[in-house]
Amino acid sequence: MSENQNLLAEQRRALILDEVRRRGGIRVNELTRKLSVSDMTIRRDLDALARQGVIEKVHGGAVPVVEASTHEPGFEAKSTLELSAKEDIARAAAAMAVPGSAIALSGGTTTFALARHLLEVPALTVVTNSVRVADVFHDAQRPTAAGGPRAGAATVVLTGGVRTPSDSLVGPVADRAIDSLHFDVLFLGVHGISVEAGLSTPNLAEAETNRRLVRAARRVVVVADHTKWGTVGLSSFAALDEVDSFLTDAGLPDGARQEIEEHLPGLVVAGGSPDA
Question: Model pTM greater than 0.90?
Answer without folding.
Answer: no
